Amino acid sequence: MKHTDKIYVAGHRGMVGSAIVRKLKKEGYQNLLLRISKELDLRDQKAVEEFFKKEKPDYVFLAAAKVGGILANNEHPADFIYDNLAIQSNVIHQSYLNGVKKLMFLGSSCIYPKLAPQPLKEDYLLTGHLEPTNDAYAVAKIAGIKMCEAYRRQHGCNFIAAMPTNLYGPGDNYDLKSSHVLPALLRKFHEAKINDEPFVTIWGSGKPLREFLHADDLADALYFMMEHYDEAQFLNVGTGSDLSIRELAELIKKIVGYEGELRFDSTKPDGTPRKLLDVSRLTALGWKPKIGFEDGIRAVYEEKFLMK
Ligand code: GFB
User: Fold this and answer.
1) Which residue puts its alpha carbon closest to atom 3 of ligand 1?
2) Is 183 domain-assigned?
3) How many structural domains does the chain have?
4) What spacing in Å lies between the alpha carbon of 180 and ligand 1's midpoint?
5) Confidence (pLDDT) at 56
6) Where does ligand 1 bind, in terms of residues with CB under 6 Å?
7) Up-side HSE of residue 127: CA atoms within 13 Å toward CB?
């Protein structure tokens, strides 16, 4: 990508999109094409068609998506499948019609079967049943991967895809009903500390294992792939290590400085028992994450709750 190329970052207000914009600006890219959803509803086929025809971007990062934690996915599967299928179909198809040089599609580690062997290799896609709490979202993301592959095969498009593990970072969603576990626990522990509450409630058993990657590390990996990777095979992006939800809660408790108890609410779902990504393909190409987990959480906590 040349510094003057027109780069469309779809979803630039989200946690991932804003991290991509920060990375591109840091690397000296000046011609970024950005639209908030009020200006351009990516589910609107006609609007997306007109936008691409007029703007003719050279490169596209497709970071616009309907995302959420386990409860939001479980309770609103129709929104997750419809919004994501519509957004990605419109953006991928228009990128093809308008000669986009390269597109980056973003998936998720929940595309893999619930009980696949660990760590999850890219080859395990479509080898078993999905985790039911997020199957609608996962099917949409799998469709996005398959669209990139199909447009490459039929039309020769250089459309690539990355599968990030669970993410956290600046600009995350802290709404307790729709957020992911890490921002939810930061908020719960912080509020419990401020209000001197005796315990914090953790959903599920605390036993599921999760891997977490900072959004700035993800943006770094996506940029690396845009610069160096042109294959049909999508790539996992993660750190290669995970911890249990209980261990995560203990770590966040320590970072926040909360002294009360942990309680586990077994009426809430655990979701998939483990989803640790095998990141050997990406690391073999020369990329690895830079942000330590504890440092990353601390920075996010300070920025969000301590106004540093
Ligand atoms: O992050 P999370 O919502 O999503 O939940 P998933 C991870 C684990 O943390 C689950 C537990 O076992 C939750 O039950 N947990 C404990 C909590 N306390 C809380 C809490 O206060 N809030 C939340 N949200 N969880 C999502 C998928 O799965 O991950 C998406 O639904 C996507 O499709 C995303 O793949 C990355 O890791 O279970």
Assistant:
1) 69
2) no
3) 1
4) 5
5) 98
6) 69-70, 73, 108, 110, 133-134, 137, 166, 179-181, 184-185, 202-204, 208, 210, 245, 268-271
7) 10
Query: What averages of pLDDT result for each successive group of 10 residues across the chain (308 residues)?
Result: 97 98 97 97 98 98 98 97 98 98 98 97 98 97 98 98 98 97 98 98 98 98 98 98 98 98 97 97 98 98 90
CATH number at residue 47: 3.40.50.720
Annotated catalytic residue, options 8, 29, 96, 137: 137
Q: What's the pLDDT at 307?
A: 81
Q: Ligand 1, residue 182: give the atom nearest the CA.
A: 1
- 3-class secondary-structure state, position 242: coil
Give backbone dihedrals phi and psi of 254, rounded to 5 degrees, phi first: -65, -45
In a domain, 300, yes or no: no
pLDDT of residue 144: 98
Distance 185 CA to ligand 1 centre (A): 11
Q: Assess if residue 215 is contained within a domain.
A: yes
The overall longest dimension of the chain from CA atoms, in Å, is 61
* The pLDDT value given to residue 308: 64
- Could you tell me if 131 and 88 are in contact, meaning their C-beta atoms sit under 8 angstroms apart? no
What is the 38 CA–ligand 1 centroid distance (Å)?
28
The residue segments making up the domain with residue 74 are 7-171+211-240+276-291
